[in-house]
């Protein structure tokens, strides 16, 4: 076991992790994060997406020890009035909701990099995330709405 400090949503969490422990498991089992979820376990669906120092990470593939002292952001840490969260709710960009935290985190990353993305840029940035319910038109609408509100 190794001692690391996971800084999650602004709070430091000193934890013990195994050398091969995944970030997703450390977040869920040691910190109590519920928004990062295992969908596929191979980094192909985006359900486990978190931001590490502002960059997206498939936490189901990432070694937890690598993120010692990194600033980790999960959907759990976003306020209910967050511009992206409210845009997703208002756009009905969900059915079952399982994938939504990953899409929200990818949208946060996209808008930080590009505050005025085209539909093509939105689709390209979100292409690593899968919605089994097929709410892609609503997801694009939500990102557009969040982008316009962020610029205002």
Brief rundown of the structure:
The protein has 5 helices and 5 strands, in the order E-E-H-E-E-E-H-H-H-H.
Describe the structure.
With 152 residues, the chain is of the alpha+beta class. The protein has two domains: 76 residues, Beta-grasp domain (Ubiquitin-like (UB roll)), CATH 3.10.20; 69 residues, DNA polymerase, domain 1. It is built from five helices and five strands; from the N terminus they run ββαβββαααα. The chain has a five-stranded mixed sheet with strand order 2-1-5-3-4, with helices on both faces. A hairpin with a 2-residue loop joins strand 1 and strand 2. Helix 2 crosses helix 5. The chain is globular, with a radius of gyration of 15 Å. The N and C termini lie far apart (48 Å). The relative contact order is 0.16. The model has no long low-confidence stretch (mean pLDDT 97).
How are the SSEs placed, and which strands pair?
Elements: E1 2-8, E2 11-17, H1 23-31, E3 49-52, E4 55-58, E5 71-73, H2 83-90, H3 100-113, H4 119-126, H5 136-151
Parallel strand pairs: 1-5
Antiparallel strand pairs: 1-2, 3-4, 3-5
The number of distinct helices, counting runs of at least 4 residues, comes to 5
Secondary structure: helix percent:
25-40%
Structural class: alpha+beta
Quaternary organisation of the protein chains: single chain
User: Could you tell me the strand content as a percent range?
Assistant: 15-25%
Give the overall silhouette.
Answer: globular
User: Could you please say which CATH topology of the largest domain applies here?
Assistant: Ubiquitin-like (UB roll)
Show unreliable segments.
none
Counted up, domains total 2
Order of helices and strands: EEHEEEHHHH
Give the biggest sheet.
Answer: 5 strands, mixed
C-alpha termini separation: 48 Å
């Amino acid at each position: 076991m190794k001692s690391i400090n996971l800084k999650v949503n602004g709070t430091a969490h000193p934890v013990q992790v195994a050398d091969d422990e995944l970030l997703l498991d450390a977040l869920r089992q040691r910190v109590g994060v519920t928004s990062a979820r295992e969908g596929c376990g191979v980094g192909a669906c985006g359900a486990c997406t978190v931001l590490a120092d502002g960059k997206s990470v498939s936490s189901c593939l990432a070694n937890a020890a690598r993120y010692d002292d990194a600033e980790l952001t999960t959907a759990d840490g976003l306020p209910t009035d967050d511009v992206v969260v409210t845009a997703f709710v208002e756009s009905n960009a969900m059915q079952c909701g399982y994938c939504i935290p990953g899409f929200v985190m990818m949208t946060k990353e996209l808008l930080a990099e590009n505050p005025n993305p085209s539909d093509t840029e939105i689709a390209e940035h979100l292409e690593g995330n899968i919605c089994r319910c097929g709410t892609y038109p609503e997801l694009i609408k939500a990102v557009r709405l969040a982008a316009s509100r962020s610029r205002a």
